[in-house]
Amino acid sequence: MDEHRIATLIESLLEQPSETAWLEFKENDSNPESIGKYISALSNAARLEDKPFAYMLWGIRDTDHGITGTTFSTTSARHKGQPLEHWLTQFVSPSLNFTFRSVDYHGIHLTLLEIPACESMPTEFDRIAYIRIGSATPKLSDHSGKLKALWGKIQSHAWESGTALAFIDTERVLDILDYPEYFRQTAQPTPDGKYRILEKLHADGLVQRDAGDNWNITNLGAILYARELKNFPPPIQRKSIRFIAYDGNGRMSPVRYRMEGSRGYATDFPAFIDRIHDAMQHHERIDRVRRVSQYSFPEIAIRELVANALIHQDMTIRGSGPLVEMFNDRIEVTNPGVPLITPERFLDFPPRSRNEALAALMRRMRYCEEQGTGIDKVIQAVESHHLPAPDFRTEGDAVRIVLYGPRKFADMTPEERIRACYQHAAFLHVNGKRMKNASLRERLGIDLRNAAQASSVISQTLKADLIRSADPAHPRAGYLPYWA
């Protein structure tokens, strides 16, 4: 925090009409246990009040905000033989990056303590969580209403609302973020005046107000609309999406094309999908009198899978972003994070995302399907092109989806046939239908003369406990996925 921001922040704190749940003024009170309780109480109160930080400011009279100065300084304060700040860190949990700063404010010594709002759970001091009620700091457990409300705030707080860059003036915000693209993609007219533009960005959670006339760019704003990801700290930079096309079927094959996104997802997404499309192998067929190009992979499936990788990744995993790899026989889309839903239930479970605001904006921009229909579109496209069933799987702390190129039924492995049968039964069920021998024959491109092949696949899938008979007493009633 530079000197200009500190001065501006102190001025904005002094302008508060009174102490708030997230702000405490002191003159010289430096009792270590009291400060520890305040850290817990103010951190929890800040989350309840939707503030990214809470503050304690020494050298201010709380009755009239008179600037008295203070003798309290953490550079010399010690407790139990340790520097005060070090002692406090041992008793505050979860670990919290609170910061003391000595300030020369117009020649008067003040001490500022900046306390981040709690994130994953209430902040505790010495194993007890406190809360701010009026000027008191009682135990949080004694106020069940506050405790319930706080957990609600914690559960709704996401990586997206975190701060990517702090204390940025208006000109710099509009320099860093591609705001014209935001208005174009969300079909809104660009407002007149910089302040009105920022108000719109603020309404969608892309920026937040900071001290004075300055702003914070949120993680959501940075990851979606950064003109250059390199303008942001490494956790954002390293979330860029990458594309590698190999000239072969393995990662040891020569690389024929490589691309790494340098801008925000919303800005880069259309060009990224175009690059994948351009790198795809295709063949030509004659449609009556015209020559038509046909690509190995359905574009809508690729578009949806890439969008899902962006939306559902675990943004808290550092140094890793979504990766798209194209081989001659398949495309693999990998995104960091263990899935919130078991992969075999992607098709039917209500969608859950770690990044709800990101998902909502991507849908508004029509970069992905409406909530809950994306995987349906992938399966539908794969089936209509008679491709092998995609493979949804967890690998370590990542999700990998494999989309296979064209392959005849005779060339599919038993596992691929069983997976196709299960997905076909699930897809029909969520669309109000039942799988039968005839529908599976069509799905797998099996000629009517070879209907026994479809029956064999159904039998193997039944043995794998992935499907069941809709009515055991009536074999022609069809089949359902095991969970139906």
Automatic annotation (TrEMBL):
Pfam families: HATPase_c_4, SLFN_AlbA_2. Residues 19-139 form the Schlafen AlbA-2 domain. InterPro entries: RecG_C_sf, Schlafen_AlbA_2_dom, Schlafen_AlbA_2_dom_sf. This is MloB.
